[in-house]
Amino acid sequence: MKPITEQLSTYALYHRDQRNIATHVIGIPMIVASVAILLSRPALNLGGATLSAATVLAAAVLAYYFMLDIGFGVIMAALMGSALWLGQWSAAQSTATWLALGVGGFVAGWIFQFVGHYFEGRKPAFVDDLSGLIIGPLFVLAELLFLLGLYKKLQADIVRRAGALRGR
After folding, report:
1. Which of 23, 61, 131, 136 has a 20 to 30 A CA-CA distance from 1?
2. Of all residues in the chain, what percent carry a pLDDT higher than 70?
3. Under 8 Å CB-to-CB from 55, ≥6 apart: which residues?
4. For the chain, what is the total number of helices (H) and then of strands (E)?
5. How far from 103 is each of 39, 54, 81, 112, 115, CA to CA, in Å?
6. In a domain, 141, yes or no
């Protein structure tokens, strides 16, 4: 398994335009939430705990994030927990509401992604490497943490490997 610095740097090569990153900060959480929504039906109730395809997928992805970095794993677990809660809530609504939230969020999230890559002038990372689908949410979290002044060494390593961000 490649270290987090290498994975985020590879993903960052496709995301150096600040407008692209901004669209990803909106689009990727929408996609993650919509996948949690769509995969929350059907579900088994196991004495208060809900088991669905969404929870199984989230557990697998979170295990991977924890192996990459404990700090990122903890934060992603909290965020993924929110997405799973939204998924369970949505699954309890009418089929029309569940589908509108899931499919609508998925389509809208991808529109944001492709607008961002129009700004970038480069195809999405997952086209060349499907692991980009898993690293994307981690990249968004990293960019937000960098804005807060956290993980400065990781940020410097990514910039050294992928290059500086471009403004408008």
Report:
1. 23
2. 99
3. 43, 84
4. 7, 2
5. 11, 15, 20, 14, 18
6. yes
Look up the pTM and report it.
Answer: 0.93
Using CA atoms, how far apart are residues 63 and 73, in angstroms rounded to an integer?
8
- At residue 32, does pLDDT exceed 70? yes
Question: How many residues in total does the chain contain?
Answer: 168
Short-list 109, 99, 88, 98, CA closest to 45: 88
Number of domains forming the structure of the chain:
1
147 lies in some domain? yes
DSSP class of 130: T
Q: Looking up tokens 């398994």, which residue turns up?
A: 1
